[in-house]
Amino acid sequence: MKPLVVVGSANADFVLQVDRLPAPGETVSASELDLFPGGKGANQAAAASRLGHETHFIGQCGKDANGDFLRKALEESGVRLVGGLKIVEGCGTGSAYIFLQPSGENSIVILGGANQKGWSLGGDEESAIAGAGAVLLQREIPEAVNAEVAAMAARHGVPVILDAGGVDAPLGSDVLKNLAVLSPNETELSRLTGMPTSTEQETLDAARRLLSLGVGRVLIKLGARGSAMVSAVEGGDPEVVRQDAVKVDQVVDTTGAGDCFTAAFAVGFVRGWGTERSMRWASKAASLCIQKMGAMVSLPRAQDMPVEED
Questions:
Q1: So what CATH class is 4-22+31-299?
Q2: In this model, does residue 114 exceed pLDDT 90?
Q3: Which of 137, 139, 161 is nearest to 269 (CA)?
């Protein structure tokens, strides 16, 4: 079975536990500060690897303690680092500052650091992409890099999945035309299309807009309401598959849940599972993730996730 290749960001996540977010001009106190490995790319690579699928990661860090911290965390999750996690000289490792409220909801500020500078894809990277069952991207690295990777994958006949999280900006046609699956949440879907997504019908209409731009399928993350896959059907109306979220007794931390969901779906995609089976497995993985603190450290492992049949 072919590996999954993830290209994306690696961040040191600084998590501040607060009772609530400050209003403009207000100061609030945090009860605790924790450091976790994270970044959408690294999270998704770790999630796929922990779920038992061979996963290669292409990413960058600074020559600092946070870079060493991330490299070790990825290796402990079983991720194979293409180029050893490239070091960008004169630039710090990317970081995220996460304000976590008692409800488990979070607000995040990202400092891109090495994720945004010095990218150069060479023979090792192209070889990894050419041999992949799929490539998984996000938007915490320069859009030009995603476009280059998507084009490279297309040349080798490798499908590309893009998680829309990471930046509030339109997606260029050079990326859209090479996507097998685009996975936004409702807010990201609205921003990508300029259309409202406050109702079920509005959400489906916005997804159809993306299909009209050349995307094969749109996998919408709906939080507590589950997920929906909207797929183009030649000569007919798009097909819609819905999956409910798995209910949990207590939400501890939602950080990384979307990354976990997308990565688990990508594993099912590479393994050739059907849409419903992949979505169901992804929902289960995300439900386990939100019951623990942190992003990468909360990701479930294969033994936590019995493989279901179609």
A1: alpha beta
A2: yes
A3: 161
